[in-house]
Amino acid sequence: MPVPSESPDKPSFLNRRKGVVRVASLLAASAVLAALPFAYSAVRDYGSFRAAILTGSAEGAYYSLASSLARLARRDGGRLEVVSTAGSIENAKRIVPTQGPCVEKFAFIQDGTPVPPDAGLELLGRLPEPESLLILARRDRSFAGFSDLRNARIGIGPPDSGTEFLTKQLLGDADLKKLDIRTSNHELEEQARLVADGQLDIAVYVMRNDAGFLRDIIGRYDLDIVELRDLKGLTDRFPWLSIGRVPAGRFDLMRGIPATDKSVPQVNTLVLANSCAKRADRVELLVLLAATLPTFVRSNPPSSTSPATALPLASEARQFFIAGEPEFVDRYFPWLVNVMSPAYWIYLFMAVTALFNLLKGISHFRLWRIDAAREKLEDKIRQMGLTGLGQKPGDAMQATKPGANSQDIALDILEQLRKLRSRCQSHANSFATPMGDEMFYRYQQSLIDRASGDLKAMIRSGGT
Asked: Which CATH number fits domain 131-267: 2.60.40.10, 3.40.50.720, 3.40.190.10, 1.20.1250.20?
């Protein structure tokens, strides 16, 4: 009697696609393993770092700080452009992203500078050393308290500078409006010269008191710091301001400038980033700041800021301050973290792991069902009188004479074995079958082929 023939297995598109995906997975794993040795090196990937930072006056300490950051970035293959500006107000306006090219990604601004809440800006931290508000006058002039400033002429720096904004905030106090103080805008050195010439009574500066510019103009124009006795009463009305001290002789030891320690208002300097700064850019600037300023990490995150500058702390900064250094993927795979945050990559890894475990469970369930179906069909074959089923190929098989309908039963069992083998082959070639489980399906196929071969031999021998 004719026996149904079986077509040999043919490679399928799913098989080839599965192979490509598996190769890609192996390459990805190899890339991770190849990166492990670098975990113990000091190499940082700044090759893709391209940004500009808005500072303030080119004579100020923060322009000098930004220049140090730029040199460090350049040494590591990146580029940080330092942009001098009038000060905080201009910086707060310019850092807001526009429709054009977005190169200016970072800025220094004074705490208290008004920033639109919907500007898309985030806080990267504050600099460890605050800026001081210095009131400078000629050494032969004396100002004991605010009452001595009646009708005074005060230079408050360039327009849109942090000096102008902070000075107007303080002089805008209701108690001081009665003094009829006259303010005017000038370039930084110009207003020092005007004070020396008697055209201005006072020049106000907001900058680090260790700036070389201050020492230069104080010595050149014979100026000194004015300490007003009721200064603390005014600064306490502005919670983001504090009182610091400038030690005696800070600007000139020989002439004793200042002659005694002077109390001066101080304001923190904040580091801002806009939406153009990707995660890798932000982390790299944080690394540069930490490398240049040893106390930067310890001084952050800021405990509070002015309501006018109430910006959210960037997630990258929060993680950086907790760990004290960039995460592994931030340091060696900056392009990767620009796509997604490391936290999301962890969730993705967990999801992929759970998915593979699920697929593994489904595969084992399928194998169990196939094995149970094969055992059931083999039992039927044994009931037909075929003994020795499942022995090694070449071993003797014996068949007893079956009943009258045994031929139909045998053909039906053979058809079920064919379908079971087809199902087994389909599962083996399935994209969802975990890598390595194919061997279990191939083994089931070999058992099904052996049972089919034994049954065909029995049919040919006339056992049915």
From this structure: 3.40.190.10
Q: Give the separation between CA 95 and CA 83, rounded to whole angstroms.
A: 11
Query: How far, in Å, CA of 371 to CA of 398, rounded?
Result: 24
pLDDT tens, residue by residue, 317-357: 988 888 876 665 555 555 455 545 555 556 556 766 777 77
The segment(s) of the chain belonging to CATH 1.20.58 are 345-460
Q: What is the CATH number of domain 43-126+270-339?
A: 3.40.190.10
What is the total residue count of the chain?
Answer: 464
Residue 342 dihedral angles phi and psi, to the nearest 5°: -55, -35
Between the CA of residue 323 and those of 127, 297, 327, what are the distances in Å? 18, 9, 8
pTM for this predicted structure: 0.61
- E-assigned strand segments in 13-158: 50-54, 79-83, 104-110, 122-126, 131-138, 153-155
Cα→Cα distances 94→91, 101, 119, 160, 180, Å: 5, 12, 11, 11, 33
Choice between 454 and 297, residue whose per-residue pLDDT is larger: 297
Which residues in the chain are classed under CATH 3.40.190.10? 43-126+270-339, 131-267
Take residue 121 and report the two structure tokens written for it: 């800006």
378 vs 225, which has greater pLDDT? 225
Residue with tokens 């005017």: 184
Chain-wide mean pLDDT for the chain? 80
**What is the distance between the alpha carbons of residues 210 and 195, in angstroms, rounded to a whole number?**
21
Alpha carbon 452 to its chain's center: 60
List Cβ neighbours of 222 (8 Å cut-off, separation of 6 or more): 138, 139, 196
Instruction: Give the up-direction half-sphere exposure of residue 129: CA atoms within 13 A in the CB hemisphere.
Output: 16
Closest CA to 363 of 432, 448, 439, 445: 432
**pLDDT attached to residue 59:** 79
Instruction: Provide the CB-side half-sphere exposure for 329 (13 A, CA).
Output: 16
345-460: CATH number: 1.20.58
Q: What is the pLDDT of residues 125-178, one digit of tens each?
A: 999 989 999 999 999 898 999 999 999 999 999 888 888 989 998 998 888 988
Q: What is the DSSP secondary structure assignment for residue 264, as one 8-state letter?
A: E
pLDDT digit string, tens, across residues 284-328: 899 999 999 999 999 998 887 888 888 899 988 988 888 876 665
